[in-house]
Design brief:
It is built from eight helices and six strands. It has about 210 residues and is of the alpha/beta class. Bound molecules: pyridoxal-5'-phosphate (PLP).
């Protein structure tokens, strides 16, 4: 009889050299509890995914209500599904008026892939600029614009036409030209060590 830790090591594709291996049985609010009853304060919230806290009653209620109606129907873009259209409207209402169309995805890296494709199709250009030390996700397009070589070198060739600028360095902005389809930056660089840019730089970058 294998323990769950052994099953984890034997059958879950390992993505970390030093997995925490904490066996979480339940979680509520900011706390997680392991199978021996030990309590942990969750200071990362699934990298922001569980940012309303674990088992938030409103979220649990909404999920339960929905699973009694239907779960997965079809790749979206075909059927009118109430939860999707309501979410899209809510997001649109919170955003500037010209950002009124939502592309729903399952992960950060897919959001970046969608943005890269949209920029290329809309501009008819191919050059993408991102920052050194940036992290944008693990799929091949997002990986191409990551600015951290060790993440990338086992997977080349990646996307062509990618250039990097130094984050928060106004001089590098001149690398952005009429050939550039998109510039992708984190508003605060995370993986690079929580680097907060100057407001003035972000304004220049947008311009
Ligand atoms: C800035 C940034 N972009 C994209 C991603 C990728 O998100 P996901 O892991 O959901 O694909 C991350 C993940 O940590 C991130 O920090």
């Amino acid at each position: 009889m294998f323990t769950e830790r052994q099953l984890f090591l034997n059958h879950i594709a390992q993505t970390s050299d030093f997995p925490l291996m904490v066996e979480i049985e339940k979680a509520k609010g900011i706390y997680m509890y392991d199978k021996f009853g030990k309590k942990y304060m969750d200071l990362i919230s699934g990298i922001g995914v569980s940012n309303l806290g674990h088992l938030h009653p409103a979220v649990v209620k909404a999920v339960k209500k929905q699973v009694d109606k239907y779960m997965y129907l079809m790749v979206y873009g075909e059927f009118v599904e109430t939860p999707q259209v309501k979410l899209a409207k809510l997001l649109s209402d919170l955003l500037p008026k010209n950002l009124n169309s939502v592309y729903l995805v399952n992960s950060g890296t897919e959001a970046v892939e969608g943005a890269l494709k949209l920029a290329k199709r809309f501009t008819g250009r191919t050059e993408i600029i991102s920052a050194f030390d940036a992290y944008h996700g693990a799929t091949q397009g997002s990986l191409s614009i990551c600015g951290n070589e060790p993440f990338k070198n086992a997977f080349r060739p990646l996307l062509p036409d990618v250039k990097h600028i130094q984050f928060n360095k106004a001089e590098d902005l001149e690398l952005i030209t009429e050939k550039t389809a998109a510039v992708v930056v984190e508003t605060i660089q995370g993986e690079a060590g929580i680097r907060v840019p100057d407001k003035a730089y972000m304004k220049q970058l947008r311009q």
